[in-house]
Amino acid sequence: MTLLKKACSAFVVNTRRYSSYIDKKPPKILITGGLGQLGVECAKHLRGKYGKENVILSDIIRPSNEVFNDGPYIFADILDFKGLQKIVVNHRVDWLIHFSALLSAIGEQNVPLAVRVNIEGMHNVIELAKQYGLRIFVPSTIGAFGPDSPRNPTPNITVQRPRTIYGVSKVHAELLGEYYFHKFGLDFRCLRFPGVISSDPPGGGTTDYAIAIFHDVLRKGHYECYLKPDTRLPMMHVKDALRALSEFLEAPNDLLNRRIYNVTSMSFTPEELSDKMIKHIPDFTITYKPDSRQDIADSWPQVFDDSEARRDWNWKPHVDLEELVSLMVKEVKEKIVANGF
């Protein structure tokens, strides 16, 4: 074999092994706010890649037996900086995934608590990441945009000006993370997610109608939607959300032209979603009774432009609307049977 061929062969092997961690020690990962919508599934996904003992789930809530037995779980209060320090030191944490936050509709009901959890908590974890040289991932959202933003499509860089405390706190997190990157060299990474759809019960977000509709229709045969039938919002299945998070965390820094990227899979309306569901559940009804969440939705993007993520680190969604509906019908049915109601 010529020297050139040997060099090319070595390059191919190294490239293929980049994300497998065969030749290097896997990262030790701490997930805060782990019992929210994404945390448990994120831990399962990352434990499958890096090993069960290397992914620590944390929250201030008592976990179910299933969650506790699935892998390491600890108590962590994001408002307790010294407590967080102890966890990072004792568990030799390398990466921090910060999910702790009050979502849009819940945050509007308790603004002071949302400020403490979403803003003070962010201050703690980002300072912790700087102090110990951690790679830190903080999710953002379509809620980081406001009525002055272009809605169809919404590009990666544009005016934001959100009108919810949830959105304001996420813009604050984005800007603080970018500042720490430029000022201190912190490896800060952030994805703006659309509505993330999973079989877990809804958690208080404005896009959660797309979860609640499956639970209500499969249990009761009817759903009353709090948004208008033609309200278009970006969405993605949790499988795509977790794959995007994982691929982005592994992406080499020299591929990243930004620290914050839009990611999405599709956009649809409640009417379009219910039309697809009829193929799987022919006998159900839906009515519409818009409430205060309609005003929130009307200030958010309708279509998300994630072309920069596709260009820089090769992001590409896998689950389309047809598959999303099939997955949700199957997964929510299984959850109903497992819970006995």
Automatic annotation (TrEMBL):
- NAD-dependent epimerase/dehydratase domain: from which residue to which, for each copy? 29-263
Q: Quote any Pfam family the record assigns.
A: Epimerase
Concerning CDD domains, the annotation shows:
TDH_SDR_e
The pathway that the record names for this protein is: Amino-acid degradation; L-threonine degradation via oxydo-reductase pathway; glycine from L-threonine: step 1/2
Give GO terms for biological process: L-threonine catabolic process
Q: Which Gene3D superfamilies match?
A: NAD(P)-binding Rossmann-like Domain
- Indicate the enzyme's highest-level EC class: oxidoreductase
Identify a single GO molecular function assigned to this protein: L-threonine 3-dehydrogenase activity
Q: What does this protein do?
A: Catalyzes the NAD(+)-dependent oxidation of L-threonine to 2-amino-3-ketobutyrate, mediating L-threonine catabolism.
Q: Which family does it belong to?
A: Belongs to the NAD(P)-dependent epimerase/dehydratase family.
Name used for this protein in its record? L-threonine 3-dehydrogenase, mitochondrial
